[in-house]
Write a structure and sequence with these properties.
The structure is a homodimer. Chain A has about 150 residues and is mostly helical. In chain A, about 70% of the residues lie in helices and about 5% in strands. Chain A has helices spanning about 5-10, 15-25, 40-55, 60-70, 75-120, 120-125, 135-145, and strands at about 30-35, 35-40. Chain A has a two-stranded antiparallel ribbon. The interface between A and B is large, with 37 and 37 residues. Chain A binds a DNA duplex (30 and 30 nucleotides) through helix 2.
DNA sequence: CCAATACCTAAAGTCAGATTCAGGTATTGG
DNA sequence: CCAATACCTGAATCTGACTTTAGGTATTGG
């Protein structure tokens, strides 16, 4: 069993954040001894899942629902699985979006390199679209398409 | 030239958001005719860049700085290029993090499928770590490593 | 034993990024 | 010409996720 300070150290989180998570109901089975929180393996796994679900874009109030499902036992396996399947889709979409963002960024890096070589960006604005080197045209199209 | 309503339609953004961006200084060269904003190609490209920089995690106040550099002309090419190079690193790191999140999510999907087949998750908790199918062990390690 | 340290709560404050509101001005189509 | 619609402003409000503050209680090491 660990104190809140040890857990804070372990996850590199401020103590206040962990208290906040508790207040929001993210540790439904957390035990106490004379008022002091006692974190066990269940809460450690919960924090790993919280990290994961947060990065997947899930809000605290929905993470709370998930943690309540976990407390309810085997009746909620299907719901829990559905939630992770949905998060999987969301994260895959997010990665796809970021790949498009990267294309735009790579195009801009190329663009400013050209502009620096040439001393101005005027002809570049005229060039775009349809007269770029094919490698760069691809980045441009990908970044600017609807 | 377009009105704010047409631009809102074009980018699928609320009119209020575009006004907010203007108030924050994201269109330093925006023209007006009798008080009404007139959006030209420059502002349209600005919005595309705003979209990109926002998704890369840049804050509005820093996007404002970038837009000011754009207004200043060729003196700022190097700064602008540096900014995009930095965003490239940030986004690449973000994608890497999301890939790890995906590993955790895939593990959880597998886990709940097993639990549903077996009717409980008790033996799964004992199993973890080191007795998983190798394909799944990899996901687990990747998701749980420090 | 007692001071320093770590823990506790409830409530208020912060921050970014919008969104809404109240009260007005400009444009447009029948 | 005039009603409906789209535009304008500044100020206030909202949201999510924390963080800080004020005032206390519990534990621990010398």
């Amino acid at each position: 069993m660990y104190t809140i300070g040890q857990i804070a150290e372990m996850f590199q989180l401020p103590v206040s954040t962990i208290r906040y998570y508790d207040k929001e109901g993210l540790f439904p089975d957390l035990k106490r001894s004379s008022g002091i929180r006692q974190f066990g393996p269940k809460e450690i796994e919960a924090l790993r899942v919280i990290e994961c679900l947060k990065k997947s874009g899930l809000e605290i109030k929905d993470i709370k629902l998930f943690m309540e499902w976990c407390s309810k036992g085997s009746d909620t396996y299907a719901q829990r699985r559905e939630l992770f399947l949905r998060r999987k889709e969301i994260v895959e979409q997010e990665i796809a979006k970021l790949e498009r963002v990267l294309d735009m960024i790579r195009f801009k890096c190329w663009y400013y390199e050209q502009a620096m070589q040439d001393g101005n960006e005027d002809h570049l604005n005229e060039l775009v679209p349809n007269h770029l080197p094919p490698e760069i045209q691809k980045l441009y199209d990908h970044a600017h398409e609807k």
